[in-house]
Design goal:
The protein is mainly beta. Helices cover 12% and strands 45% of the residues. It has three domains: 53 residues; 147 residues, 3 Solenoid (Pectate Lyase C-like); 179 residues, Pectate Lyase C-like (3 Solenoid), CATH 2.160.20.10.
Length: 429
């Protein structure tokens, strides 16, 4: 009924302006005078105050559009139709994904849109195990301003169906499986309350995005699942991740080239490979990474804690600078603090001992807890471009293994200072 009423209102608005001269002429003919006081039936404030009125273009509940939450029926087209309806409207509109299990293939949710869009996810989206259903990614939101995803539902990539086809551990130039949720060229986005689970590859991937908030999100996959990064970002600006729990098989959070102004606060990581910056320098024309803040976080049972990694034979000249890691608790983390300018997975690098990546002004402050290996701090920098301005302040990390090794720091070509650091690590800087 609301849709019909809205349609009637639209028709009235269009007709009133055109009919006004006719009404004036009719008054003049009947009364012998011009009726200058005749006004449209719809007040001008309703039409013009605050911009365009909010007009839906069709149903936004995916069940009304034919989706079935039985976990078997393909609901791809219903969701695409809801997106089209919302994207082509004006104002703010909510796409509803109610309780149920909705199976889909690739969802290419493209803009630009004339509306601000809220996706209310209370059901579960299931990514089909048929890889032929994807061109590249699973859910991809592209070139959109003002979009949010919230609710209590789950984006389930059903990764166990295809993880056996991931060959990236054998071939570094492998075919990439679909990422679960991708935001490309998106400005002003919020992701709140939902769960991302068992992605085929990365769970959430941000590329060329601005002003993104991820809050109270759960991201989970087995610790041995391949390349299931929790959140990856590249060429993005002003990203905030708050109160989010990530347990995956790769980096909990990875920050790629060209990313600036990132705040990670109150998050938990583990299992996984920690909170990483990089890898940097693999491709030409990569851009600087700047102003990264990680505060009040816990990393538990991860292979790495706080890590910065760049290729030894980097193909770009760039800078990684102004990082602050403050109040981070390590719980049984294999390598709690790592800077590695000689990163070289699968031995694909030319080991020249040089680098084009400058790593400057890195502060590790109030980092406490336990290391699963003796090597609690690793600063592996290169001769030609030492790490500059590295600070260890109030760092208290202890090896808790059963072997007789003692807590230690391994440091090469790192320049900076240490203050109030346990004696086993104090000689590093």
């Amino acid at each position: 009924m609301k849709m019909v009423d809205a349609g009637i209102r639209r028709r009235r608005r269009r007709s009133n302006g055109a009919a006004l001269p006719l009404m004036v002429a009719l008054c003049a003919a009947l009364l012998g005078t011009a009726c200058a006081t005749v006004k449209p039936a719809v007040a001008s404030t309703e039409l013009y105050a605050g911009g365009s009125p909010s007009l839906p273009a069709g149903p936004l509940d995916i069940v009304m559009l034919g989706a079935k939450g039985d976990g078997k029926t393909d609901s791809t087209q219903a969701i695409m139709k809801a997106w089209k309806n919302a994207c082509g409207a004006t104002g703010t509109h909510r796409i509803t994904i109610p309780e149920g299990n909705f199976l889909t293939g690739a969802l290419e949710l493209q803009g630009p849109c004339t509306a601000s869009i809220i996706i209310r996810l209370d059901g579960n989206l299931l990514g089909t195990g048929d890889l032929n259903a994807y061109k590249k990614n699973w859910i991809e939101i592209m070139r959109v301003d003002n979009v949010s995803i919230n609710g209590h539902g789950t984006i389930d990539g059903q990764g166990p169906l295809v993880w056996g086809k991931n060959e990236c551990n054998k071939n570094y130039n492998c075919k990439i499986l679909p990422n679960s949720l991708v935001l490309d060229y998106v400005t002003n986005a919020q992701i709140r309350g939902i769960t991302l689970k068992n992605s085929k590859f990365f769970h959430l991937n941000l590329f060329n995005c601005k002003n993104v908030l991820v809050e109270k999100v759960e991201i989970t996959a087995p610790g041995d699942s391949p390349n299931t990064d929790g959140i990856h970002m590249g060429d993005s600006d002003n990203v905030t991740i708050k109160s989010t729990n990530i347990a995956v098989g790769d980096d909990c959070i990875s920050i790629g080239p060209g990313t600036k102004h990132v705040k990670i606060h109150g998050c938990r990581c583990g299992p996984g490979h920690g909170i990483s910056v990089g890898s940097l320098g693999r491709y030409k024309d990569e851009k600087d990474v700047e102003d990264i803040q990680v505060t009040n976080c816990t990393i538990k049972g991860a292979t790495n804690g706080l890590r910065i990694k760049s290729y030894e034979d980097s193909k770009s000249e760039l800078k990684a600078s102004k990082f602050v890691y403050d109040e981070v608790v390590m719980d049984n983390v294999s390598y709690p603090i790592v800077i590695d300018q000689k990163y070289c997975p699968n031995n694909i690098c030319s080991k020249t001992g040089t680098s084009k990546i400058a790593i400057n002004d890195i502060v590790f402050k109030n980092i406490v807890g336990t290391s699963a290996t003796p090597e609690a701090v690793t600063l592996n920098c290169v001769n030609n471009m030492p790490c500059q301005g590295v600070q260890l302040v109030n760092v208290n990390l202890k090896y808790i293994g059963t072997h007789h090794n003692k807590t230690m720091a391994v440091c090469h070509n790192a320049i900076g200072k240490s203050l109030n650091v346990v004696k086993e690590l104090a000689s590093c800087l």
